[in-house]
Amino acid sequence: MKAGLNSLIDSQLIELIHSGNREAFGELYHRYYKKVYHRCLSFTKDPDEAFDLAQEALMKAFDKLYTFRGDSAFSTWLYTITTRHCLAVGKRKTRRTL
């Protein structure tokens, strides 16, 4: 089944994830990791920090996957979570340096 997962659309992968399919989770992760990483890199300009932020944002999104209603594209929902996560971390860092 793994070979066929890359041909599924996001909503189908999400349904599989909800039914406990861990391979679908991996497919969704690999499908979006680079884009999430580059989004984080645009905030930090530091590859190591962007790596950490991307991992955190993806884990946060996948932990909250049950809240995804499908009103927008999964990618839009994921990038919103990523952006908010990067902004929140940046805000916390700014407070610490003041």
Radius of gyration computed on alpha carbons: 15 Å
Tally of alpha and pi helices:
5
- The number of E-state strands comes to 0
Strand proportion: under 5%
The computed structural class is mainly alpha
- Low-pLDDT sequence parts: none
Major β-sheet annotation: none
What is the terminal separation in angstroms? Answer: 52 Å
Structural write-up:
The protein is mostly helical and 98 residues long. It is 79% helix and 0% strand. The protein is built from five helices and no strands. It has helices spanning 2-5, 10-18, 22-44, 47-63, 74-97. Helix 2 (10-18) crosses helix 3 and helix 4 (47-63) packs across helix 5 (74-97). The longest helix has 24 residues, at 74-97. The radius of gyration is 15 Å and the shape is elongated.
Spell out the key features of this protein:
98 residues; 0% strand; mainly alpha
Q: How are the secondary structure elements laid out?
A:
Blueprint: H1 2-5, H2 10-18, H3 22-44, H4 47-63, H5 74-97
A few lines on this structure:
With 98 residues, the protein is an all-alpha fold. Helices cover 79% and strands 0% of the residues. α2 crosses α3 and α4 (47-63) packs across α5 (74-97).
